[in-house]
Amino acid sequence: MQTASEQTASLLRDNWHRVIEQVAEACSAAGREPRSVRIVGVSKYVGPELAWQLAQAGCSLLGENRPQSLWEKCEYFDAQVPLPDVSEWHLIGHLQRNKLKRTLPLISMLHSLDSPRLAEAVSRETAALNRVLPVLLEVNVTSDTSKTGMASSQLEELLSKVEDLPGIEVCGLMAMSSLEADPLTVRREFEQVRELRDRLQSTYGNRLQLKELSMGMSGDFPQAIAAGATLVRIGSSLWQGL
């Protein structure tokens, strides 16, 4: 991985605009408007300097897997002049309860809520901050036991426990597809997530607005968009060539 330079800045601008075009093409193929899908630029692969260059290229929504990397990048970004136009940081990886206090003030959305204990801990911290944090419930619809997330049968039980907790707003689901699965299998897995979301939305009606589906990464975002993704988590395609 290269260090930040004028060359990497130019490469990242090209990569960013190519990903925008690819997402727009996938939306067009699915009969959807490009603005219906937001790109989360996943910066876990790089240090703060390259993440900052991606933000300068136009990526205003960045996602991190590890809280410590999020802290480091946010601190670096805050020290830059001029500040890049990053409107949101999302945490897309696992969040341990002992890292909540430092992490929650920095993020606009948590993609990986997966237990009542974590939900209760997040609720306590965000209520103390006098804010409401949008969260996604992480579900695993694959047969891949290496994937994180809850089985679909566990979702409704969790939702019934967290829907009224202060300080959090459940606004959708997050999922990954099976590793190295064929495109038809991947699309069907993502469709299962959308169908699960639709059933939950029907059950909860106006009590919850489950409008977000965080599905798809660099290798499978076209299938995710075809299945209804509203957030695609793009990493390696943005850092290609570095």
- The coarse overall form would be globular
Largest sheet: 8 strands, parallel
Number of helices: 8
Counting DSSP E segments of at least 2 residues, the number of strands comes to 8
How much helical structure, as a percent, in the residues? Answer: 40-55%
Low-pLDDT regions:
none
Q: Which structural class fits the helix and strand makeup?
A: alpha/beta
Radius of gyration: 18 Å
Assembly status: single chain
Instruction: Give the termini separation.
Output: 5 Å
In short:
The protein has 242 residues and is of the alpha/beta class. It has helices at residues 6-29, 48-57, 67-78, 100-103, 116-128, 152-162, 183-204, 221-227; strands at 38-42, 61-64, 88-91, 109-113, 133-138, 168-175, 212-215, 231-234. It has 8 helices and 8 strands.
Labels describing this entry:
242 residues; alpha/beta; eight-stranded parallel sheet; 8 helices; 8 strands
Question: What does this protein structure show overall?
Answer:
By secondary structure, the chain is an alpha/beta fold. The chain contains eight helices and eight strands, in the order H-E-H-E-H-E-H-E-H-E-H-E-H-E-H-E. The chain has an eight-stranded parallel beta sheet with strand order 7-6-5-4-3-2-1-8. Helix 1 crosses helix 2, helix 2 crosses helix 3 and helix 7 runs parallel beside helix 8. The chain is globular, with a radius of gyration of 18 Å.
Question: Helices and strands in order, then pairings?
Answer:
Layout: H1 6-29, E1 38-42, H2 48-57, E2 61-64, H3 67-78, E3 88-91, H4 100-103, E4 109-113, H5 116-128, E5 133-138, H6 152-162, E6 168-175, H7 183-204, E7 212-215, H8 221-227, E8 231-234
Parallel strand pairs: 1-2, 1-8, 2-3, 3-4, 4-5, 5-6, 6-7
